[in-house]
Amino acid sequence: MTVAPPLCTIVPPYVLDRLAEAGHEPAARSLLLDAAHRSTRHTAPPTASADHGAPGTAGTAGLSRVIADTGHSRRLPGRTVRTEGQAPVADRSVDHAYDGLGATFALYADAFGRRSVDGHGLRLDATVHYGRDYDNAFWNGNQMVFGDGDGEVFGDFTACVDVIGHELTHGVTQFTAALEYRDQPGALNESVSDVFGSLVKQYALRQGAADADWLIGAGLLAPGVQGVALRSMKAPGTAYDDPRLGKDPQPAHMRDYVRTGEDNGGVHINSGIPNHAFYLLATALGGSAWECAGRIWYDALTGRRLPADADFTAFSRATVAAAKARYPDRSPIADTVTAAWAQVGVSPG
């Protein structure tokens, strides 16, 4: 199967829209750049969804990273400034990007036996200092791109390892389930990236589920912004409430599901529902979230039975099936998965 990967940005378009409408010029410029990249993705050659399983071996021996710098231009990929094995350089954005790519590779390799986003050791490329005051970061189907932020609302997008893990997981989804980027399949696409972005951070910090903050983009908002992150998996809808950004619109339960024509049918909004289901599962199981809850979600994502148009019910069923297959002698785990989905109003049936 072949798909044209969507442009997946960490800051939702409705956030930038609100800022632009209030006269925030960096947000307005960022929206134009995002629109241009989305147009490019629509006309780009399709990319194979090559791996629906979990090939590869554990460990980071096959890790290969290339970090480039556009020097605030918009010409990708830019000038190469650090490659695999080279020492840190005098640029925090370069080193943060390098380390974040490595942390993401490490989670997938060590916890799931996956070699890079494609499962076959794909080189991880990233570009920093993209544009001027660019208020976003994205995976474009081939590489990561990071803006510096405007310093007034958003800071440097390389500074949050969960943001890097989130965006690279869009690559994992691209090469596995290839979930459609609209409505519930799109919300699952975003949620899976939030789940594994959070797990990248937890794995890097060696945090248990009870100790994690379950925030996506903590530290990304500039001083003075009334908020703690872009999203909260623990308490969707509470990440920010700011005069400029508005209020976090994410629901935590299906009774509050948002039906909208914006944001590809609310992919960044309704992702709060499966996000919260994962949080409930991980904290109910306890311990390190990547060891059991994360394994179940990974198996569901990479299983051959998950269709590209899977809705929340289909994915919940896939996770229950994955739990039964992975832990056949531990039936309470599958029951806990079912209960977590039930708490957000989704019934696996």
Keywords:
globular; two-stranded antiparallel ribbon; 10 helices; Elastase, domain 1; Neutral Protease, domain 2; alpha+beta; 349 residues; 10% strand
Condensed summary:
The chain has 349 residues and is an alpha+beta fold. It has ten helices and twelve strands. The chain has helices at 13-21, 25-43, 92-112, 161-175, 183-205, 263-266, 272-285, 293-302, 312-326, 331-343; strands at residues 2-3, 8-9, 47-48, 65-69, 79-83, 124-128, 137-139, 144-146, 215-216, 231-232, 241-242, 246-247.
* Structural class designation: alpha+beta
Biggest β-sheet: count, sense, barrel?
A: 6 strands, mixed
**Beta content:** 5-15%
- Mean model confidence by pLDDT: 93
| Overall spatial form | globular
Report the end-to-end length measured between terminal Cα atoms: 29 Å
Quaternary structure: single chain
Write down the Rg.
19 Å
- Provide the succession of SSEs: EEHHEEEHEEEHHEEEEHHHHH
The total count of helices amounts to 10
Enumerate the strands of the largest sheet in spatial order, edge to edge or round the barrel: 2-7-8-6-4-5
CATH topology call of the largest domain: Elastase, domain 1
Number of strands: 12
CATH top level label of the largest domain: Alpha Beta
Q: Which residues form runs of ≥5 with pLDDT under 50?
A: 42-59
The tally of structural domains comes to 2
Please tell me the CATH architecture of the largest domain by its name: Roll
Helix content: 40-55%
